Amino acid sequence: MGLYRATSEAAEAVYEPGEFERDWTVEQENDALASGLVEIVPQTYRVVGDTRVFETAPGETFEAALRIEQEKALIDGGHIALVDDAKKPKAAAAAEDGDAETSAPKSTRKAKGA
Fold it and tell me: Where is average pLDDT lowest: 20-24, 39-43, 45-49, 90-94?
């Protein structure tokens, strides 16, 4: 699931204010990014393979705003791993802590891909 941020007040009306998660297809992500309404929020990754990734040595971490397809290729290839909770939206973190009624992100209440 990708982590995104609306780029303007108009974009917030279409998506939601602040950071939000979406389970988009590659095409949906490409369309949303091309519209200029959203941007990818950089996340923290750890290099788990034997080679450097984005100038980062094995065992070290780096931040990057990776598109779905690039992130999937690097994770599936055993090169990187997402560092848990590094950039999770505050509302989603609170929801996992048991306060889901008051802090669940709007994205969990919308239809998938909306």
Answer: 90-94
Q: Which residue has the tokens 């980062």?
A: 56
Give the Å distances, CA to CA, from 21 to 40, 48, 77, 78. Answer: 10, 24, 23, 24
Does residue 114 surpass a pLDDT of 80? no
- Which residues lie across from 47 on neighbouring strands? 80
Structural domain contains residue 34: yes
Length of the chain: 114
User: Range of 61's domain?
Assistant: 2-100
Q: How many domains does the chain have?
A: 1
Predicted TM-score (pTM) of the model is 0.72
Query: Token pair of 68, please?
Result: 């779905």
